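Something for you to look into today, if you have time. What I am after is a single protein written out in full by you. I want to see for myself how the chain folds. Could you add the entry underneath, on a fresh line?
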Amino acid sequence: MLSASFDADNGIVVTVADGLASVEEFNAYLAQFGPLVQKSRARHGRCLHLVDAEKNPIQSRDVFDYMAETSKRLNAMRDGDRSAIILQSALAKMQIDRYGHARQKQFFSDRQSAISWLLEEVAP
């Protein structure tokens, strides 16, 4: 499962990645993701993105390569955007590190720490 939603209270785009994704599922996710990025930018002047991949395994190489290349081509994340990624697996972290889509990204083991980091520079 790969889904995108918007945390209206905090103005954060939330991605949940749980299990292996297909190219078709990733493309459907991107259609949801783009408008949510714009909502976050309208509120904060940049995109705040929480990725909950706590239960996510390493993706297959062909699907991962497609995801990375497509994201790079679309340039969905820009300078100043922040991505907080919740992960438990060191191997999954290494794979996501290769993704290269987030200018500012940090890894966390819990949701509250990730949200706090995303919001730390946001004016009240």
